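A reminder from the course coordinator: this example appears on the midterm review sheet, so study it carefully.

Given structure:
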């Protein structure tokens, strides 16, 4: 299959629109991919497009039949040092929303969210999505609505008790920071009835835990 470049457009698009294109995007098409043709997408829809002769605009063609493979999962995640890798991977998995949560043991307080959005955009372009995940402003753990939420429970690594399957109505999952949840946060999660999700018998890095936790509720 021919490798056609895919480009995310920041605004709503339709056939016959003429969209100004950034200089680096035009350079990428003409000098890296050596083509004027591409696919563009926004909010679940994908269109054929061509770069204008002067290289300043994208001319939007017909809408394609490509269905957006993204899902409706919200990942609540304590910011971590390797946030770039985490966002790249969960974007490829199709998550709809990423909500940073400040927990007691969160250490990565100064994340460059502009860079994170750029990484999510590039991951969506590469992974054949027709949308990019919504990335929210960070919220404190105390503000979480834990109703119908699952959480990655590192305590299960020390337990031989078999965990139940995640109920099919669960569409949100919470993953803690590198140091895990505090005892008081576990108490809040347990009291609220949040669904404990086992990630196996080993303690995982936070970015890998986010990927496996997301996969657990995709089924």
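Designed residues:
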């Amino acid at each position: 299959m021919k490798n056609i470049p895919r480009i995310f457009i920041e605004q709503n698009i339709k056939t016959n629109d003429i969209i100004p294109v950034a200089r680096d995007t035009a350079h990428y098409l003409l000098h890296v991919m050596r083509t004027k043709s591409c696919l563009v997408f926004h909010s679940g829809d994908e269109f054929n497009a061509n770069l204008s002769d002067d290289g300043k605009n994208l001319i939007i063609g017909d809408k394609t039949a490509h269905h957006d493979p993204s899902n409706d999962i919200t990942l609540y995640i304590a910011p971590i040092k390797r946030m770039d890798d985490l966002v790249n991977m969960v974007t490829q998995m199709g998550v709809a929303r990423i909500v940073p949560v400040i927990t007691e043991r969160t250490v990565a307080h100064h994340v460059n969210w502009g860079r994170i959005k750029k990484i999510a955009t590039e991951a969506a372009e590469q992974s054949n999505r027709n949308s990019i995940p919504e990335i929210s402003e960070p919220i404190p753990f105390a503000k979480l609505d834990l109703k119908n939420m699952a959480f990655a429970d590192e305590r299960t690594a020390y337990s031989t008790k078999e965990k139940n399957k995640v109920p099919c109505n669960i569409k949100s999952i919470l993953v803690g920071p590198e140091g895990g949840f505090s005892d008081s946060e576990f108490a809040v999660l347990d009291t609220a009835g949040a669904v404990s999700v086992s990630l196996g018998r080993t303690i995982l890095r936070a970015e890998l835990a986010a990927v496996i936790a997301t996969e657990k509720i995709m089924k």
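The CA atoms of residues 152 and 197 lie 5 Å apart. The first strand starts at residue 6 and ends at 8.
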